[in-house]
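Journal club prep — side note

Before the paper discussion, L.F. wants everyone to see what a predicted structure for a comparable chain looks like in token form. Sequence:
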Amino acid sequence: MAKVIIYPTNSLILSDMVERFGHEPLAMMEKIKEIINTIGVDSPPLNITPEGPKHGLKYAAVEVPAGVRGRMSLIGPMIDFAEAGIIVGDSSFSFGCMGCARTNELTKFLIREKDIPILEIQYPHTEEDGQDFVYKIADFLKSLPSGSDEK
């Protein structure tokens, strides 16, 4: 089972596909869940703590806005753990809007710089493109090592 970083990191569709093919999706939803389910952190729960931007300094300079550093404090460790990646370009907002152009560029850059298998694919805009999109992702995920292959 490979740990697959997905971009956009909050795409439910990509996350579901990765999981269906027996791999672990590294997605923002799980990271946010960890933070808001921690008992006693905040009430109401917050998706960023004052420590987040400090941890984000590992991935972005101090001159970068705190929002980018805060996001990178969540996304950066996922990239560090990733064994493969899927980057979908030109996606619609409903596919997984990341909401921050600078974080988006930094995220894609760091994924591309990592020495892991990466599938870069454009978001489909027709039914035919959609089928091709799913097939390419399926082929990529099937090509990754599974738990039984690693031993």
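L.F.'s comment for the group: The chain is about 50% helix and 15% strand. Keep this in mind when we get to the figures.
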